[in-house]
Amino acid sequence: MTNLVKQSIKALLYPLYERRLLRQLDFTQTPHHVGVILDGNRRWAKSNFGGSTEAGHRAGAEKIVELLGWCEEADVSIITLWLLSTDNLNRAPEELDSLLKIIAAAVDRLDELGRWEIKPLGALELLPTWLQTRLKDVEKRSKGRTDVVVNVAIGYGGRHEIVDAVRNYIKDGIDQGESADQIANNLSIAEVSKHLYTAGLPDPELVIRTSGEQRLSGFLLWQSAHSEFYFCEAYWPDFRRVDFLRALRAYAQRHRRFGR
Fold it and tell me: What is the pTM of this model?
């Protein structure tokens, strides 16, 4: 059987499979906050374009709007997308510059659609000034726009976030005239949480990672303590609605104990 025939059969069967999954899902059990590690753009490009990483990043950016539409259908109200890690900032300058421009265009596209509140997360001070300004403008424009919040994690690293949170907690204590002992004694999970990039938002119930890698790599390191994880083999540009529905089904079938 040729690949073309196989693809044609899959194209016919997947809509049927999607409908079957939809019938199986109880949307009262779907998560309110989903985090997604958009992984595999470069490997997708290598397998499809012989190594054109820019093509992979562009294809990945185009997939984001589809995902957000699927989330809306499932009543997911908060989506956190990991678009760029702090480690990614160490990539070759020419690749990084291209990637940052693609990310900026993707965020602008989300803003133009006017369907979501967009909140940039991360060590934004590590980004080029032009991108910091652009992200702040989008955040200001979209604030309170809808009940659906899209967090775009750019220049994000879980360890970096925790260090920033503790540092800002200490600074606040100093500004309030507290002693070193008071600051140390008042340190708690709740106080650290107040200073995270996601402060004020509920933790994600479900974290999805594409590309077959089965690790978080520091994504929402603090917030994912009680999250359910779903690892998908597909590279991010190949991620389909059926893959998303499978993730929701897997989540609904699990019994969340929260350490109890």
Answer: 0.90
Q: Which SS3 state, helix, strand or coil, does residue 154 take?
A: strand
Q: What is the CATH number of the domain that holds 165?
A: 3.40.1180.10
Where b means 16+ CB within 10 Å and e means fewer, 126-139 reads ebeeebbebbeebb
Question: Would you say residue 200 lies in a domain?
Answer: yes
Specify the pairing of strand 149-156 against strand 117-121.
parallel
CA distance 4 to 33: 38
Annotated catalytic residue: which of 3, 26, 39, 108?
39
pLDDT of residue 259: 62
231 within a domain of the structure (yes/no):
yes
Count of structural domains, the chain: 1
Q: How much is the pLDDT for 5?
A: 45
Using one digit for the tens of pLDDT, what is the confidence trace for 200-237?
A: 999 999 999 999 999 999 999 999 999 999 999 999 99
Q: Which one is catalytic: 3, 26, 88, 108?
A: 88
**CA–CA dist 163, 258 (Å, integer):** 25
State which residues of the chain have pLDDT below 70. 1-14, 17, 22, 49, 51, 255-260
Phi/psi for 204 (5° steps) reads -70, 135
Query: Is 119 domain-assigned?
Result: no
Q: Reduced to 3 states, what is the DSSP secondary structure of residue 80? A: strand
User: For position 12, what pLDDT does the model report?
Assistant: 54
Q: Does 185 participate in catalysis according to the annotation?
A: no
Distance CA 149, CA 142 (A): 10
Distance CA(35)–CA(150), nearest Å, equals 10
The answer to whether residue 170 sits within a structural domain is yes
CA distance linking residue 228 with residue 249, whole number of Å: 12
User: Can you give the residue range of the structural domain that contains 66?
Assistant: 29-90+157-252
